[in-house]
Every structure is written in C-alpha cells, then in structure tokens.
Amino acid sequence: MRIGIDVGGTNTDAVLMDGATVVSSTKTPTTANVSQGIAKAMREVIADTGIDTAAIDGVMIGTTHFTNAVVERKRLTPTACIRLGLPATVCLPPMVDWPHDLRELVGGEAHLAHGGHEFDGREISAYQPDEVREIAARIRDAGLDAIAISSVFSPVNATFEEQTADIVRAAIPDANITLSSEIGRIGLLERENAAIMNSCLRGLAARTVDGFKAALDELQIRAPFYISQNDGTLMNADFAKEYPVLTFASGPTNSMRGAAFLSGLRDAIVVDVGGTTTDIGVLQHGFPRPAALAVDIGGVRTNFRMPDTYSIGLGGGSLVSPHPKSLPHKEGGTSKTKNSPSLRVGEGAGGWGQIKVGPQSVGYELTSKALVFGGDVLTATDIIVAGGAEDIGDASAVSQLDGGLVSAVQERIMEMIAIAVDRMKTSATPVPVIVVGGGSILVTGDIEGASEIIKPDHFPVANAIGAAIAQVGGECDRIFSLAEMSRDDALDQAKAEASERAVNAGANPSSIEIVDVEEVPLAYLPGNATRIMVKAIGDLVGG
Amino acid sequence: MRIIDEAVLEDLALGAAVLGTGGGGDPYIGKLMARQAIRDYGPVQLYTLDELNDDDLVVPTAMMGAPTVMVEKMPNGDDIVNAFLSVGKYIGKPVRATMSIEAGGLNSVVPIYLAARLGVPMVDCDGMGRAFPELQMVTHTIHGISSTPFAMSDERGNTVLMETISNLWTETFARSVTVNMGAMAMIALYAATAAQLREAAIPGTITLAEEIGKVVRRARLEEAEPVETIREAVGGFLIFKGKIGDVERRTEAGFAKGDAHIEGIDDYAGQRLQLSFQNEHLAARIDGEFKVTVPDLLAVLDVDTGEPITTEGLRYGFRVAIIAIPCAEKWRTSKGLELVGPAYFGYETDYVPVEERYG
Lengths: 543, 359
Prior knowledge:
The structure holds two protein chains of two kinds.
Chain A: E1 2-7, E2 11-18, E3 21-29, H1 34-49, E4 58-63, H2 65-71, E5 80-86, H3 100-106, E6 109-114, H4 129-141, E7 146-151, H5 159-171, E8 176-179, H6 180-183, H7 188-218, E9 225-228, E10 233-236, H8 237-242, H9 250-263, E11 268-273, E12 278-284, E13 287-288, E14 295-297, E15 300-302, E16 310-312, E17 318-322, E18 355-361, H10 366-369, H11 380-386, H12 403-424, E19 431-436, E20 450-454, H13 462-468, E21 471-481, H14 487-504, E22 513-521, E23 529-538
Parallel strand pairs in A: 1-4, 4-9, 5-6, 5-7, 7-8, 10-21, 11-19, 19-20
Antiparallel strand pairs in A: 1-2, 2-3, 9-10, 11-12, 12-13, 12-16, 14-15, 17-18, 21-23, 22-23
Helix pairs in contact in A: 1-7, 4-5, 9-13, 11-12
Chain B: E1 2-4, H1 6-19, H2 27-41, E2 44-47, E3 57-58, E4 61-65, H3 67-70, H4 78-91, E5 95-97, H5 110-118, E6 122-123, E7 125-126, H6 139-142, E8 150-153, E9 159-162, H7 167-180, E10 184-188, E11 192-193, H8 194-200, E12 202-203, H9 205-222, H10 226-234, E13 237-252, E14 255-264, E15 272-278, E16 280-286, E17 289-293, E18 297-302, E19 319-325, H11 334-340, H12 354-358
Parallel strand pairs in B: 2-6, 3-5
Antiparallel strand pairs in B: 1-2, 3-11, 4-10, 7-12, 8-9, 8-10, 13-14, 13-19, 14-15, 15-16, 16-17, 18-19
C-alpha cells in the first residue's frame, strides 16, 4: 500500500491506496511546520483503516514548500553565481532581472569568466582555469559555499560548467554547486536563474526532507519516501535535497495525473476547481502538456517544463456580484436577508445585467464567510446550494435568493469554464473533460465543446492521488558520434541507458515506457555528433 | 527634449509590442539592456527632429540575428558602441544622435542602451512606424538614403564595415556575416542628417509607443475595456472580434508564414476572418475579401486583457480583437507601396487605406 500526500498552501491532503483502490483519504490544514501537518494527515489515514504500518510500501509527497519559500522570500541561502561566456553577455550580468529584495537576500554575488560556446558548438573564448581559481578563492573568502554555474549554450556543451565545478570544489570542499545545464534549457538568464534558486533552496531542502523523514519515523513507517517533480515522476529523498527547484510545478502536475488515474483517460482536459482559482490543463498520453513560454516564480523568470495551465479567478469562494442596479427586487425578500447585506444592494427592476463571479474570493475563509456557513458574503458555493445541486451548510440561509439570479449565475460560471476549456483545446473536436478539486460542485451543467464531463470519485483529493500513483523515471542525455555507429544503434543505446536508470531508481522493468526522445545534431563538432535525450518511466516496484 | 527614464522605458516596451504587429522580436532582452544602462549611466535625452540642426548626423542602431541566439548569448555592450562609432569614423564627421530603425518590437528599445552608455541623445522617430521583416523596408529607402556605410560588430571586438550598391545587397551580406559572428550581431546603418530625416523618417513614433504602453498599463490596472482604450490611443479601427480556429504554418525562404482562421463572435458572429502573416501580421480578409493589408498595421489583441498576440502566439481557442491602424503616409506613396505594399508580399489586391473602408 502507498500513501500519497499533497502539501498545498492551505490544505494538506493524504490518501492511502491499495493498488488502484483508494482506501482512505483526509484533508487537514497545512501547518507552519510542514512535517507536523504531514504527520497528522498520515496518522488520520492510518487510524481510519487500522492497517499495520509495515504494510506501507512507499510514501509519495508533493509539496509547494520550495516554491513558497521563493515567493515569500524566506529561508534562502546566500548564493554566488559564476557565468562562463566572456566577452559575451557583459551587458546583462547574473540576477539582472531579479526583484531587488530577492537579489539582496541572495547576496547578488555574480562573477563573469571566459568560456562558453556558440550555437554551433564553437568556443566563444578559451577557458581560463586560473581565472576560475581566482574567482573560487574570492567566493570562499566571502564565506559563501552555495554556488550556481552557468555557461553560454551549456545545453549544447556542458564541459566548461563541469570543469568549473571541479575547480570550485578544490577550493571549497563542501560547496553546494548547481550546474545550469542540469536543470534548464536554452535561454541563459532563465536557466541561470533556476540554477541560482536551486542552490539557494538546498539548505531548506535538506532540513525539509529530514523533517519528512522524522515524521515517518515518528509513525514507525519504514518504507522509502519520494518527492514528486514537475514532470509527474518521483525523485528519492537524496535527489530531492539536490534539486529542490524540480518540485516547483508538481502541484498542478499531480492534480492532472490524479485526474487521469481516477478517470482512466489518457487524453482529456482537466478542470481543477479550488477555492479561489480554477486551473485548466491538458492531458496528452496521460501526462500534462508542457508550457512553451517562460514561467515567473516570485518575480524571477525560469524556463522549466511546467504544465501548460490556464487559470481563471473562479472557485468555491468566489464573490458573486450582480450589478447593483439590475438585481431585481423580490417581494418581501430583502427584509429577511439580515445575513446577506450583499443582497440589499438590489433595487430597481429589469434584466440581470452584468453578473460577476470572482476573481475576488473569500479563499480559505469560505467556511466562516459564505452565507450557508452563517457568514454575510454571497459566494459561488451559496449559489450552487441555492440551486439545489448540493447540500452544504445551512441551505435555508440562501432559500430566499431569487431563482432567476441563481440560474443566471450558474450559467455565467459554466460559460467562464467553457471559454477557458476552449482556450486550452488544440482543435474544435470535442474532448472529454475531467473535473477535480474541492470546488468541483461549481460544475452543474454541460460544457460546450466537451464530449463528456467526468467527475470521478475522490475528486477533492486528486492531487494526493496523483502523488501516490506517480512513477519513477530515468534519463539519458549525452552526445553520440554517428560516425562510429548508426543512428538506430545510438537511439537503442540511449533508450537502454535511460531504462536502466529508471530501474535503478526503483522502476519495475516490465512496466518501463520510453516517453520522450529528442535529437539535436551538433553540426560543428567532429564525427557527426548528435545530442540524444531519452526519458524512460515505469511503475515503482511493489506499488 | 524629453527624458527616457526607467518608467518611460517600461511603457515604451509595452507599446512597442502593439506596434510590432505580431513580430519584431521579443522586447524583453532589449528592455533589460536599456534598463541596466539607464541605472548605470543615467536617463536618455529624447529630441524631436525639429530640435536638431540641419546637418546634425544621426546613426540608427539595432540588433540583428536569430531570436533563439539572442536569448542565450547576450551582447557584450561594447559591440553596439563599436558599430555606432565605426560608422561615424568612416564618414569622418561627429555623430549627434542615434535612433530606432523600427518602432515595433525589440529594436525600438535597443538604441536606448547605446544612448545611455555614450550619453548621446536619441531622436523621436523611426524608419517604419511599425515592424517589418527585411532590412531595406524602411522609409529611408524611399528617400534614397543608403543603408551603408553599414557596420556589424560582435562581442569579441570584430567590426565588419561594408559599402554596397543597394540596400538589398546589404541584407544579403549581412546575413552571412551574422552567421559567422554566432548568429547575432549589433549593427549601425542608414546614417542621415536631420534635414534628410525630416523628409525621410516617421516622426514621433517613440512617443507614440510610450503613449500606447501607458494606456495598456492603465487599462490593466483598472481592468477597464483595454481593447477600446488601445484602439482610441492608436487612432485605429476595430475590424473584428472572434475566436481563433485553425492556424496553418509553413516556413518559406527562412520566414515563418501562415494563416489563422478566426470565427466571429458578438457583433461579428457568422463572419470569418483570415489573418495572413509573415513574421508580422500582414493582411486580413473577411469572408474572402481583403479588408486590411500592409502597410497598414494589424494589431491582434486578447479580447479581455488587451495583451498583443504575436504570430507565434496565435493558438486555437484564443478570443481576439483585431484593430487596424493607419500606417505612416510615406508608405502610401507609389515608392512606399512598391517596397512594402500587398503586391510585394504576394497578395493580389490593390492597397486601400484602412480609413476609407472603416472611417
């Protein structure tokens, strides 16, 4: 059996799964000390079923903790950056596009050195080891041990970054070094930003991962645990300590993977309705479609392969505001609505005018501020209860809402979702739509352009399920000389290496699939060199 | 004379994306360069053409090359200075100012970097009033101003200076040197006196870009009818609102060409617009009939946010508003239309100014 956990900004969700069956699930508030919330959630799903902790084979955790650290400017380690590329790139030094406060926090120590490559593999300038030694000594003298290294066109040729890491390690033996080529693609500033953030986060990552381990120990769970990555695969605890930035987009990825699992569909649109926003993404062959453009984290541009999601300000807590002049006066109705001053604005007659739902939301205060929970704010949830689709809280608090208004708002909600869904589609062909998330009750009708609408069981905890069912991956990314072997042989060899790494990471050999193959010919290198990148994934053994 | 500081630069880059008519390159890297130079060396003086003396020499500066390389191997900064100074040295006269060759996209802001670094003024004008894909497509060409002496510089300190018999030859040689320099070069070209530019350039376009940017920014903050406010600011005409359906793309002779088919919504329901592009948005046909073509501008905006949508950004399902903007009068002459009219881009229709159809 496995436990899947999703640590969000508001809630920590946990599920206990036996194979493909959800045995138990829970939602608890996220705690300041993330490990405590995790321990509480795990305790609940275990107590709920009374299983022996020895029966747990693995614990999978998806967390936004590291993303939040950057957004909130907390717990970041000062980091130096060395960029190889002189004489190019001087006019835009490292961290030039960072918000001032974040750059101050990180220390803003940036060094430029010779090296780097052209797009075709030629060197921009000769690498100078002495120059790098001097920089390493200055970083050591400044008392820093977190270092990010970038080099122009390092996704094509990373040798200068690797040589620099060796020199830095000789000067600072315990250095925490991130190479930009290990985590990013073409786009120097964005890739370098990601490398710097990674080194900034490693201290926090070590403490957090150790905290997770302690939470497991406390409950006497001896099973290995994993952290989910942007691409929906798992990394083991040691790897997560090394590459915390790779968790940045795991939230939306887990919810989409969970939706795929719960619905049994591999190609569909996923609508994840939360308290404040609705995120729409696209599943292709069971995985989220990646975004093509730069993604901003805490004001810093990165170029991670993030899922391509489109967010709208619509959720269970969204404020509903009918146009003040157009909300019809209901005979004797307004006098009784002492719980709902937002209804008193309604005067005059006529049509419904402009109905607005969101983007403002009561968010996590839904359970105290919505009308059905005794509050005084008209929210989207109140409308759904008034419409009779759900029975949540005190339905009598919304019984006097005008039926015309209720259906007009419901129509508006469905229209907002339909437009957003349409925006994410690649063609006019109708596709299935899977609805998940705590705010799924908002979906009460048909969605134009959807072939069917699926609200699977356990939809509120789809993201924890996505974590629980995550697979492990292995990659091969190296340069092959096609003068010495055929292209097919090279591809086979790359696939075999990637598969072997997936098995080493814990994958069941019979479940392995090759999910991505990319070839980049490097025209100016001798021997018809081609960079081949292959990604293999498979199910965890014993899941 | 006005001052370009950081705040002005932000608005200018936003407005340049609208005037880029879907192309012209992402202003992001250019904006960062200009911002850093303003921080390091102080703000830039922006002169009108009337504030210059007749024989003041103006040398435009720009970046040329592959967009994927620009985001990886950024310039040194000395390179653009070398290109600019080389042209002055070759001519043998002091250079008074620099200017943008195109008001749309990346190269609207690149000269601000040079102006801040050298403390030379920038002139409030450009050679396109928008963005176009080829080097000879500037109003300078209409008025017989040569693109040469043409200087190209790389980050190593190399400068290639050329004299050619036509602006088309300059384009040919420049392409191969750019590849040798690593698929990107900083360039200086089309040197002219203020007196010549009063005839040949399009005045006030930097201020126009800034005004448009200001409107977009305010509309975003206030969430108020951004499309209508932009239309008003640019003096354009709303010609269509619709949902993007099919987008066909093809690469021909190194250019990204294609057509987007847009289904009408709201007042335009039942109509169909075909948007043709080559790096920039070039022509719009409604129900098969040409309505707007080059050299008039086509801005494709997100219907809700007013965000300009580039040719690469055209995707199924986007809801867009299309605004047509009258081009500079210079493009409407027979020489202008020969350079950038519908026939040059292969559209079999006569050019009809947008205000004759929509005014």
